[in-house]
Amino acid sequence: MAADTVDAAHDHRPSIWDWKRWLYSTNHKDIGTMYIVFAIIAGVIGGAMSGVIRWELAEPGIQILHGLPWVDQTDPDAAKHAYNVLVTMHGLIMIFFMVMPAMIGGFGNWFVPLMIGAPDMAFPRMNNISFWLLPASFGLALISMFVPGNGTYPGFGGGWTLYPPLSTSDLHHGGASMDLLILSLHIAGASSILGAINFITTIFNMRAPGMTLHRMPLFVWSILVTVFLLLLALPVLAGALTMLLTDRNFGTQFFNPAGGGDPVMYQHLFWFFGHPEVYILILPGFGMISQIVSTFSRKPVFGYLGMAYAMVSIGFIGFIVWAHHMYTVGMGFDLEAYFIAATMIIAVPTGIKIFSWIATMWGGSMTFAVPMQWALGFIFLFTIGGVTGVVLANSGIDTAMHDTYYVVAHFHYVLSMGAVFTIFAGFYYWIPKMSGYRYNSFLGTLHFWVTFIGVNLIFFPQHFLGLQGMPRRHVDYAEGLAYWNHISTLGYWIAAVGVGIFMLVLIDLFAVKRRAGANPWGEGATTLEWTLSSPPPFHQFAELPVIKPDAHH
Amino acid sequence: MAAHAEVKHDYHLVDPSPWPFVASCFVFLMAVGGVVAMRGVLPASEDPGFWGHIVNTVLVKGKLPLFIIGAAGVVMSAAGWWLDVIKESRKGDHTPVVDIGLRYGMILFIASEVMFFAAWFWVFFELSIFHDVRANWVVPLWEGTDTAARWANWPPPNVETFDPFHLPLMNTLILLLSGTTVTWAHHALQQGDRRSAMWGLLITVLLGCAFTYVQFVLEYPHAGFKFGNNDEISTANLYGASFFMATGFHGVHVIIGTIFLAVCLIRLMAGQFTPKKHFGLEAAAWYWHFVDVVWLFLFTFVYVLPYLTMQE
Predict the structure, then answer these.
(1) Shortest CB distance from B238 goes to which of A148, A242, A253?
(2) B37 and B47 both lie in a single domain
(3) How high is the ipTM of this complex?
(4) pTM
(5) How far apart are alpha carbons A30 and A112 in whole angstroms?
(6) pLDDT digit string (tens) for A146-166?
(7) Which residues contact A543 (CB under 8 A, 6 or more apart)?
(8) What residues contact residue A202 under an 8 Å CB cut-off, 6+ apart?
(9) Residue to substitute from B58, B134, B229, B249, interface A, most A β-carbons within 10 A
(10) What is the CATH number of the domain that holds B269?
(11) pLDDT tens, position by position, A18-34
(12) How many folded domains does chain B comprise?
């Protein structure tokens, strides 16, 4: 590697108290940092919402939501609506304002340029608007919770999928909150599309000499596939959202059967975006896990090209399976059969990835540092979520399972134990590089185990609840479901302790200031970011590194 | 490596800029203002004090100040941003490798625009085939689907479509002609013939304006169908809604493309384009061709085919 470490102290790094450094930033690392801070804040807000949800569901009946300050205590419907609003906003916040900003905006911004040997992103100024549109979008979403939604009840409570007629009819949500939410998602979408253009251009145009596509680290591959999905899926959502807006405000009947329109058409448009979206949420995680497993096994990733093209095929197939979210709408058996078959096929490239991670570890010189613990936890738990996904892919079974807690358990295994575990894995892997400090490994390990136990306790019983027929998005449930709901809520408190430990990790990191060297992970860490100082210079690679053909991925 | 390492690459490290942050603030304002205009964020206040006054002036349904300030701010930020880009280009920041990056960026932007129109065509085709069974509450099974028969019911009763071989055909010819004139301008510029390039571009801009005039001023007011109608819900609305959304969004893109080309014309007259380096003009031309192709699809499927089925 040609790049030497640069002494950070001599580099013209503005003070962190200089507000212009952040508001006017054109630096991919600063923008990445803002994304990560934003994701943590949004994650805490979205996580607190799930806390209220679980607290309410700890016992049958409605106990907690009466106590929210903006809920009319004498009106049970107000509490029910508030519950639905919380469920809706929890989903939207975690997807659009926590996972996506953390993975793509945060780690993607920080490490794609570093890993391909580029000095910055292709469009550094556009990078900044990708970030700053997010607080605008998040602000609209939060305001929507407090303005009239359903009658006088505040907020939109129709679920994160925003299905009509709940989202279009004045009978259901005649207030401004749905309109604010529509524009919020428009803006979040614009932010992601601009980001996608930026990443694709950076990866295609700014790789260091010798860094061919087939020598790119798998994390860069994962971001490349992800942003292609964003670029092609989000405009369709923008169209669907615009139709919601005109149905609500300008008298069109796109989704109104009385006028010959069709609510199912909205579902098609939404899931044409929505299914690629779930791969957008997990693919960057796949990339991070590949880097981490390789680093802590001290081996190159097993089957590098297969791993890269498995992600490409997951991305491609992800566009042609969307209606498996809609088996219960009555689309006809031929169509269901197609979507079952296509969905099952995704298990093949996903299996390639799982087995290749295992094969990477096989015979490796493994160490179990904190990032590796999260990575192993991810592989285990994501596989469980994948298996229940294969179950749900069958329309016959899904007809029974649709909208039950089995589905909730499934997608939380792949997201809050899949995507979120990869985010923590990436965080513990890269925070020494980003901050320049090492964390307390004991706290990190404790964070992992407490979270691991907590989230499993939350979500594993939800499989049972789903099989017993407990519907999702309901504030109350039958007495017979109380036991596992109670266990699930206990799990939430454990997971919440885990979040507390994570905050301790952060405080400890910046309070104790243990210096991390350029490469704290040793010879297994072969990608370009480890050739730079920690933290890297404000502008790295003034002289581009040259990649030799035998370099590891 | 020395502390002040000499930069040995041709990438463009952009100076810090206020525009992204400023633009985002105005986008927020515009979004809130849009909701206020359409629906009102808060109900009218009876509080005679300051807050009540503020609410009743800017936050109740139909009030426009927030939206206007937001939209004006977005336009201003965009203008400031692009003026900076032009300055940087003039300064020589756009090296060959940066130029390639700009090309990637423009192509990808157009790709996302294509997907946006995919949503509108999706809706148009789905409605054209299924609106009839839905309005009659028949479960639309795929078995035995006769697409041609379904299509024959499109447009729905009580819709009189435009005669496509009248104004729409003229607009098709206008756009196709403008596609050739922009190519003429581009080739002239490459040959160093700035005078011809200016003529070509000027004619393109005028043709763009002509298209907008024909569509929005001559054609739209005479439509035999409505965009939306809450008072009388019927299938007749479907054709109107999908027609106006698809052609309307296209029309807006024509206006944007015309402005883009007009800016290029001004830059050409100011001598900012050279025979070798004129990516702004090329990007505008790419965008223009994209708008042109979308129109051909609109003309075929939204204007001509429904008209022909109506004639049978």
Answers:
(1) A253
(2) yes
(3) 0.94
(4) 0.95
(5) 14
(6) 999 998 899 999 999 999 999
(7) A2, A3, B1, B5, B6, B8, B9
(8) A112, A113, A116, A118, A121, A122, B101
(9) B134
(10) 1.20.120.80
(11) 999 999 999 999 999 99
(12) 2
